[in-house]
Amino acid sequence: MLALAFRAGTADLAIAARHIVEVLPRMPLRAPSLAPAAVIGLLPFRGTLTPVVDLCLLVAGRPAATQLGTRIIIVSIGTGAGARLIGLQAEDVSELIDCSVTTRGLHMPEHAWLGDHLAEQPGLPQLVEPAELLPEALIALFTRQPAP
Amino acid sequence: MAQRDSQLASKLSYFVGVFLALFALFAFLAWRTLDQVRVKGPLYEEIILGNVLIADVLPPPQFIIEPFLLTLQLVEETDAAEITRLVDKGNELRIDYENRQEFWKRTLARDTMGDLMTVTSYRAAMEFFRLRDDDFIPAIRANERDRARRVLDQMQQRYDAHRYAIDEVWKLAEQRNLANESKADGLVQSQISTLGILALGIILVVVIMAWFARRAAATLSQRVQLVSDVADRVAQGDLTTEVPSTDDRDETGRLLFAIGAMTLSLRGLVTRVKQASVELMSTATEFAATSRQQESTVQGFGASTNEIAAAVKQIAATSQELLATMEGLNAVSGQTADLAEQGQSGLSSLDSTMDRLAQAANAMSARLGAIREEAAEITGVVTTISKVADQTNLLSINAAIEAEKAGEQGLGFLVLAREIRRLADQTAVATLDIEQMVKQMQTAVSAGVMEIDRFAEEVRSGVGTVDRVGGQFGQIISQVKTLSERFDTVNHGMRSQSQGARQIGEAMGQLLDGARQTSVSLREFNAATESLRDAVSVLKQEIAKFNLGH
Description:
The complex is a heterodimer.
Chain A: E1 2-8, E2 11-16, E3 20-25, E4 39-45, E5 48-54, H1 55-60, E6 71-77, E7 84-98, E8 114-117, E9 126-128, H2 130-133, H3 136-143
Parallel strand pairs in A: 2-9, 5-7
Antiparallel strand pairs in A: 1-2, 1-7, 3-6, 4-5, 6-7, 8-9
Chain B: H1 2-37, H2 42-57, H3 65-76, H4 80-107, H5 112-141, H6 145-236, H7 251-406, H8 411-544
Helix pairs in contact in B: 1-6, 3-4, 3-6, 4-5, 5-6, 6-7, 7-8
């Protein structure tokens, strides 16, 4: 079992490889008008406009650093017909790590999206589920279907 | 003062008394005169008596009793001459009667009495006279006595009528006179009583006036007493007296005000004099102290002058020694000039060396510039390598993810992708090292360029300094050359200084004499100051007699 390690602000996090569609290099994006601040742009990807969220803005309140290690992780949330692709911009996206051994850390109800620690890896990154990572308002914004 | 006051009051009373006495005398005389001349008074009685006497003695012209008597006489008369005389007499009496009648007609008012007098009695009288002239006298002349007697009877009737009217007139006149007399008497009596009331009124007014005058005199004397008290106290030297102010603008009020103002200004004057005397005293004391201090200063000055004279002698000796030293210095300066010339020649060779150094620095600076450009190119290559490594890393991640999704079939590919990623990571680390080294090299080159630039600048300024030093050496040489001449001047100055010191010594002697004389004068001045202080003390004692109330 592999997971992609990355950093959002001060938090060392990891996403399981099965959720990941592709990793893209950082590129200049234009923020859609009147969108929430964390949504930094719409990315044309495989024929659709994929919304990109800056996890650094979401977690630490500051935009991600303009470095080569800063990349966009395209993940899929939802299943079947309701599945949507979302881009997550994070720092230090350069390592795939083994995530077979997990350990419970602190339980914080207000941050329930923070999952188990990968105890064997340096920095004790925490596994997160893309569907839980984002606030419900953003999830609703991205998964809502236009009226037929 | 009380005595003077009583004198004033008694004088006033005396004058009032005299006035009252004189007035009483006047009133008495007026009363007596009035009493004497009044109706039924003594004089009046006498005048009336005279009139009555005349009336009693003389035949009344308005009463025709006399003509009637003449006619009675004529009836019996036979002598022609006597008849003529009696007729003439009768004519005269008629003229008299008519004249008087004219007078009474003019005088009397047209009332009852006037009518009786001028109409009734007159008409009867005129009838009487007409009968006498027309019938009686011709009958007498014709000596017809019987006719004459008949006519006389008629005339008798007229006379009686006349007589009756006259009696009425007399009664009326008597009544009127009595009424007039009593009226006049009453008038005089009322006048006398009015006079008495008037006199009483005048006396009352005079008494009131006297009382007012006495009061005014009392106020006046009180004010005058106050003023004289204040003046007495001022004369004794008490200036604290407050003069009560008054609103009266009369003479005494003004006097009070003036005395108050005078006392105030006198107080101010004496206060100022007192202050002035105190200041004078302190000034005199200061004079004494200052002059004593000056005396000691003058004595100290004498001592100082002696010391100065000794010091001047030493100066003279020292200047002699300095003269010898100067000559030695002159020789040393000659040697200095030689040394400076040698230094100048050495400097010119240093100058050319400096120029070469500057050129070498410029060449070095250019080389370092080339090195910097090379380093920039290396940085560009390293950036490219970094980008490639990054792409490789990304590719390997995506490959690994795909392999993971593939499951068992992708395991081999997963290992390959991990190897590729490791190589890419190593490449990235190596490029990071190269980048770091190039950065250090660039920093070193920059520092070197700066150093070279600074060195070149220093070399340039060194060249300037060498030039300046050369110029300064030249100046030193020329100055040393002029020094010898200056030394001569200094020698001459020293000699004249020595002479001057001697002259100063003599002047000091004279100054000592002057100081001694000043000391004597100061002693005299001291004595004068003492006498001034004595005089001021006397003045202070005199002023102390004034009491200023503080």
